[in-house]
Specification:
Helices cover 33% and strands 23% of the residues. By secondary structure, the chain is an alpha+beta fold. The strands form three sheets. A seven-stranded mixed β-sheet has the order 8-10-7-11-9-12-13, sandwiched between helices. A hairpin with a 5-residue loop joins strand 12 and strand 13. The longest helix is centred in the middle third of the chain and has 18 residues. It is globular. The structure holds adenosine-5'-diphosphate and magnesium ion (MG). The site of adenosine-5'-diphosphate (ADP) has 14 residues, from helix 1, strand 4 and strand 5.
């Protein structure tokens, strides 16, 4: 995974900007009925006849948001799309289109960009969104990648961050902490590789958490699941920065407090084992690790019977009056104020 297997290197200057765009986008076809015009004109045209249009953008910078020494370009393309779609799903909307804008230095050969685009296209196909345009330009140093995701939602279905009420239950999809730990494993292997490039590490025990880091998935399924269960979250957010910081966003925007129960936080067995190996506290990792792209939402207590048996969803706490603050209730039954440490607290 760490070695560069792709040996053919075609300089970008041989194609020029238009040739490059044409080459990278030659296989793109659109499927959404709302896409009237995709790539190829001065602008794309959408026809959103029903509902509200939902838009979200992310900008990723090499060396800041991704490190190409252990992030294969195909994975980067995939992840960049998924991260954006996650924001659309966090509004309880359906993602329909994306645009991809790219700045690259001439250190990247055409084959590298083909890899990147194969990841972008795979994500677009997997999630059923149309790639409808973007921009391509040169950069003096490194790569910048910006993706905009577009979606649609019925007005009454949209979930904002500000709708939580005291006594609402706090629910999370999937499990937490894996993506951060996957990164720890990859960073450790990178250091080993620097010393001994012939070392072939056995990463199979870590495959779940490495996949969580390199090939995360967005929870497209949760919106339809909630619809089936006839549950409308009172607030929702996706977990990009860590559980702690996302809970605090819901609390601040909804003007509520929160009690989060340590023993309820869902953890995969690989996360628990790897935490032991790295001498990290699994609760700290779940609270501050980030990049899990699970959905965090609140529901009315009355809806508890509808979700309680679902293996995709875990109730991890409840909202309170704002005066009570936001706390983690530990296994020892002590209360610790939640802090928005994010990622850096673990470094
Ligand atoms: P302009 O000069 O008007 O910005 P471009 O030549 O950059 O137009 O783009 C031509 C077409 O190719 C447009 O439809 C644009 O959206 C699309 N496009 C440009 N770069 C990309 C990219 N990186 N990915 C997808 N589509 C792109
Ligand atoms: Mg352009």
């Amino acid at each position: 995974m760490l070695a560069d297997k792709n040996t053919k290197k075609t300089g970008l200057e041989t194609l020029g900007e238009f040739g490059l765009i044409k080459h990278l986008t030659k296989n793109i076809i659109t499927h959404q009925s709302t896409t009237l015009k995709g790539i190829g004109d001065d602008a794309a045209i959408l026809s959103m006849e029903e509902g509200k249009t939902v838009i979200s953008t992310d900008l990723l910078v090499e060396g800041v948001h991704f490190d190409l020494s252990y992030m294969p370009l195909k994975h980067l393309g995939y992840k960049a799309v998924v991260v954006n779609l996650s924001d659309i799903y966090a509004m309880n909307a359906l993602a329909t289109q994306i645009t991809v804008s790219l700045a690259v230095s001439n250190r990247f050969p055409l084959e590298a960009l083909e890899e990147l685009y194969s990841g972008v296209q795979l994500a677009a196909e997997t999630y059923g969104v149309d790639l409808i345009g973007g921009d391509t330009t040169s950069s003096n140093k490194g790569m910048l990648l910006s993706i905009t995701a577009i979606g649609i939602a019925k007005e009454e279905a949209i979930c904002y961050r500000n709708g939580a009420k005291p006594n609402d239950l706090l629910v999370v999809s999937g499990d937490l902490g894996g993506a951060y730990l996957g990164l720890q494993v990859l960073e450790r292997e990178k250091q080993v590789f620097k010393v001994n490039p012939n070392n072939q590490p056995d990463l199979s025990p870590y495959s779940y958490i490495i996949e969580r880091q390199l090939k995360p998935e967005a929870r497209k399924d949760i919106g339809s699941l909630l619809q089936q269960l006839e549950v409308k979250p009172s607030s929702m957010i996706d977990i990009s920065d860590g559980l702690s910081s996302e809970i605090l966003h819901l609390c601040a925007q909804s003007n509520v407090g929160c009690k989060l129960f340590e023993d309820k936080i869902p953890l995969d067995p690989t996360v628990i084992q790897t935490c032991e190996e790295f001498k990290l506290d699994s609760t700290t990792v779940a609270l501050n690790g980030g990049e899990d792209y699970e959905l965090l939402f609140t529901i009315d207590q009355e809806d508890y019977p509808k979700i309680k048996a679902n293996p995709n969803l875990t109730v991890i706490g409840h909202m309170t009056e704002p005066s009570e603050g936001a706390h983690l209730v530990t296994r020892a039954n002590t209360q610790i104020a939640l802090q928005a440490q994010g990622w850096n607290a673990l470094q």
